[in-house]
Every structure is written in C-alpha cells, then in structure tokens.
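Sample A.
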Amino acid sequence: MSALSLVVRDSNTMLRRNLLHARRYPSLTLNLLLTPVMMLLLFVYIFGDVMSAGIGDGGADRSEYIAYIVPGILLMTIGSTVIGAAVSVSTDMSEGIIARFRTMAIHRGSVLIGHVIGSVLQVLISLILVGAVAAAIGFRSTDATALEWLAAFGLLALFALALTWIAVGMGLASPNAEAASNMAMPLILLPLISSAFIPADTMPGWFQPIAEYQPFTPAIETLRGLLLGTEIGHNGWLAIAWCVGLSALGYFWSKSLFERDPK
C-alpha cells in the first residue's frame, strides 16, 4: 500500500471517530450553533429597525437589513463552530489518547486531518441550518446566479478550513479544554468588530482600520457581493489571501505543536 493510501485510510478512520464523538455528544455543537442563530434573531427583531438606519443612507427597512446581516452571521457561524475543534483537540491531548495513537502504526498527521475534515463538515451543516433560519425570516438572494452561489459556498468552505486549522493550533497550545475554549473566543468576537452589522465607514474614524483590516470584513463584503450584487472590489482577493495565509499559518503551527515530543 502506498504512503498516500495509508494517509487516506488513516485519515478516514480518524474522521469517522470524530464524527461519532460529535454524534454522541451533540451538546457542544448545538451550543456553538445557537450563538449565531440568537444573534441573527436579536439583531433582526430587536435592533433591526434601529440598525437599519446605518445602511442605505438611512432609508433601509428591516427586510433590507436582513439581507445585509446574513452574510456576516454566516461568517460568525464559522467562527463559533470551529471552537469545537479547539476543544476536541485539547481534550484528546489532555486525556492521553494522542499518546496512545503515537504508539500505533498509523500516519501521525491523520489525527489532525481527521479533526480538520470533521470540523469543516460540521461547519457546513451549521451553515445550512443557519441559512435555513435566515430564509425562514425573509432572507432572499434572487439576483445571484448558480455560479455566484457556488463561489459563495466555496468561499465559506475555504474560510472554514482556514479557521479550523487556527482552532486546531489553539487546541494543541492549550493545557485543557476550558483554556482552548477561552483562547478561541476571538473567532467569535472578531465578527462583532467587522462590517457584519453596520458598514465600516459609519464607525468612528479611529476604529475603521480595525474593522477593515481583519479577515472577516473582506470575506463578508465578498459574500455580500456574490449573493446580493453589491460591489466586491478588492475584497475578493483580500478574502482569498486571508484564507490561504491563515490556512498555512494554522497548518504549520499545528504541525509544529503536534510533532513536539510529549513531556
């Protein structure tokens, strides 16, 4: 059997293991999924009339604000769901199962690959559920073509992959699951200081660079352009660059931490 076949076989085994864990303990995934759903309902039905004054020169209504906010909520869903990967990896490390895997005749990288693929699949399922809630409360994207929908899905999957690798690194760097959850909190907080809820140019001048030069804002604006027909501009290339850069950073960081000799 070739080396590639071994990697695929062992990674598939680890993926099944992680999916079984997620099925047996769905409370973590459910709790992480409820955060973006509650944020969506809160900002639409509680703050929607007020927040919509910040878009469309103040003439937008609640339905327009739903269209504006959904791309940001989808990106927030990714940030909240991948925290589960950090917690899962940290739990494996602290409970000793990784040390047991090191003694077995399996490809060492398959352990992390299984976590990453399992997390990305969970993220995609979460996105479908949040998207269904958004459609139920009035979100529509009638102008987007099939190619634009495909590009939007590809961007979400690529962003999920990038954040998952970062979350895996956070899990490996944390001494326990609680610390991993706390370390990964910026993945939820960053969308709150992006253009997810109001345009960046309506924020205070000193705060606008913080909102503009972070990974979530270009991805959100690109998603809006694909689904709602707004101008994408340079945001598309920035979003892809952020995804590639974060994926590479997370991968090499995780690999370095995982290959360290255990204390």
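Sample B, a different protein:
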Amino acid sequence: MPWEDVKDILRPNMDDVHMGVMKVDEEKCNKCELCMQNCPFRCWEKNEEGFPVLKEKYECFSCYNCKIACPNDAISIVDSYHVDAGFFKTEPHPLPPVMPLEPKDAEGNPTDWNEIEKAVLTRRSVRNFKDKPVPEPLIQRILEAGRFAPSGGNCQPWKFVVITNKEIIDEIDKVAINVLKGMHNAYLNDKSVKALESVIKGSVGSADPRIILGGMGAIGKEGGLTPSLNAPAIILLLGDERAISAPQISIGICGQNMNLVANSLGIKACWSGFFGLGASYHPTLKKKLGIESPWICVTALCLGYPKFKQEGMVPRELRPVKWFREDKDKSGVPEKTAVSQTEKQEA
C-alpha cells in the first residue's frame, strides 16, 4: 500500500483533532481522586491546591468515566472529542453529548425505564477491580448467557477460554504490552511510522488517534493500564472464521449477553481487544490457549468485582436518525424527531 494512500490515516493534522475537555468544580470536589483513578488514559493530575485538573498534554476520547465516578457531581463537560477534517473527521463535529431521551409508552405518554432498559443504559465498562476471585459457578452462568445468544443460521460460531490463572494472565499482558508499545513508538516517529502501513490494511481503526495515542499510549505506563486491567478472571471469545457473515457480529451479540448477565450478578466487565491481541500474537501461547484455525480470538472480556462505583448513565453522542414512515395523511413527518426531542429537553 503506497504511503500516499495511508498518509492521511497515519499522519492526521493534529490541529484538527480536539480531545475531550472536562472541568472540575472546586466548590463541589472533595479531592477523593476517583475521577483520576477511573480515567483509562490517565488524563488528570492534581494542581497545587490538590484539585484534579487536566494535564497539559493528554488524550481524552470523551468516555466520561471521570464524571460517573465522582460522588459529588463535580465534573462537567466543556467539549467532547471531535475531529474537524481528514480521514477520521467526525460529522457533524462535534456530535452533541446527550443523556437518554425521555421514555414514552406506545401512546407517546411519559413513562419509566423498564428493568432491561435500566440495565442497558447504566452499564459501563469497569476497569478498576478488587483483588477478589470471581466464583466459577457465576462465571458458568455468564458463559451460558453467551452460549444461548442468536447467530446467523444458528451456526453458533463461538468458543470460550476462561483464564483465572494469574501467571498466564501476566504472560499474555507482557506479550500485548510489547506489541502495543512497539506500535505506539513507531507511530510517534516520522520515519518508523511507515512500517505501520501493513498493520492498518486489515484494521484502519487501529490508527484512530483515540486508540493509538490514547489507548496504546496508556498501556504499560507506570501507574497506567495493563491489557488485562488486573482483572481476576478473563474470558477469551473465539470465533469460527467459517461462520456465516464472519464471526465478529455473532461474537458481539454473544459477548453483550455475557456482559449484561455479569452486571446482573454484581460482577462488572470490560472489553479488552488489547488482551485478545496478546493472546493471539505469540504462536506458542496461541497453541497453549487453543487458538488454532479456523478459530481466531475476536476479543476478551475482563471480569471482576468493582473497587468503587463505576456505572450509571452518562451522555452519549446523538446522531440524527432518518425515518421512513407509512404516513396515511401524507403530511410528512420531521426526520429529526430525536434531535427535536433533545432540543426540547435542553431548552
């Protein structure tokens, strides 16, 4: 792949890339530092008075994990992550972060969220776990939730590998950290970045500034993240490459079943593609884990008991929805119903 074809991907104009901006209300802040602990990219530091402030240089992709962990609602959104131009341009930019739209019943009257909706809307990726094992009977229930997921043609293209052995988790972490550090360092160097041309052929998204600067940059740093997130239990989700329409969609559906059931059992979870990468990278390690053709490791689910509250509703990007309605009176219905409702909420 010629360099000119990937230059816009691997060398975006960083003046067009705007990281998320958050702010702490010092009158509400109790200096508990949970926002700092719950930021996956370690964007925060303490000022002279001991209050959290964003670092001079940081990568924030607007996950709002800092906001959800704050017990005093002391953190507010100033601006969300967006890109003005180039390959990774977000459109429109920025997309407005909006809380869930008000629920209504079939007649359009205000109502309450049902239990399934609450489970979906309050679920968050948890990255801070207690040093406490997850009981195997509960892991088995999580596996059953995945096993009974729908799949194209009912081909059930999944297989699970459960790892609670700390030595094996550490071994996979080391492999993943070495690979990710290498990619991150190569990206930062104007000469070696060209070596990543072949890497992005199959995964253009791996060069997104959020992941290559933020995610890979945060892995392996002192006090930063590990691919396993130090979780006491990890499930590798393997997909059969012979699956109808490829295995990734089926694995996503299957994995979300597992994620929601884990939450219902008081166990929290986070996807870690980085850990899956580590499990897939070394031939000897792959063989030990049973990752052999036609099976590939699509992703990993890290499981554990949370150190502190890391779940709840946060704003999400609101992209306009295009509707095609069967309208008997032919009077026409506005396409941006969701946006209109949002504007009404914010008014």
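Observation for Sample B: Residues 337-347 have pLDDT under 50 and may be disordered.
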